[in-house]
Please model this.
Amino acid sequence: MTLCRAGSSPALGTKKTLQSMENSPSDYPSDETKSLARERCQSAKWQNFYLTPKECIDGRTDHEIFGVPGGDAGLLVATIATYEKMTGRPLDKKQIIAVLDKYIDLIAHNNFYFHTDNHAHELPDNQEAQTDNIGCGHLKEVLKNPEKYQTRKEITGAILTELYTRAKQTPSQKKSNPIKLTTLTSNHDEIAVIIIENTDNDQAPAIKPNLNGQKMFVYHAGVAKEIIKKIADNAPDLFKANSTTKFEYKKIDEFESQLTELFNQQTMATVEELAINKNTQQPLPIYKVSITRDKQNNNQINF
Model:
């Protein structure tokens, strides 16, 4: 069956979902927090988001990123979960790893990111990844709560086990498809969530989550939307790595819509679980931001 788009896709519920995550202005703890959010948006650097790794929304990262929950690994896990949901066919470990290799090549452009932290236990050789081996808050939640995240534990476990195994390989052992394992340090003491809504063709404003010791979760909703479109366009190739994983959908648009819905739900679940003030146990303020450039290429910030 030949697969093609039936025209341009709608926003697929993204606006509604993200609006439901946004706090009202009266919920903001102070103008100072908003000023700190504006400061890091003002210093954003525009980059090609297709060719740059998608890193986690984690506030501990101290360089400019495009943030999505779980980074490239989070998007991949949701992609496979969407395929299984639509076909009713669970993939085995070999098939999951085959999709991983295709994803690294077609979507991540051989620059695949996932992270751990200094609190996670190292994964022993020849063992499956468990929650105490995972330093990514989002992927830990996905593994712990398969029903809530609508993702089989076998998907998340197979992906993370393979990624940790490859990360420990010597240069002579490494496959041609590279991965980037980052170990984040310090504790989660984020003070806000920033949602970057816009892109400009293949460019978007990369943000520092950790600026001068002040940490904020950073989610690039606009970038996630564009990457999901790319995943959907490449889905026939992603899932033909094995003869038993034929891509059987009538429309690529349907896959994009289902993946968008699932990833938005997973994002909301993680923000609700992790974006909490540790002292008050109240949700952190969420700032939806659009960043554009003027004629002098200065960043213009709109909350």
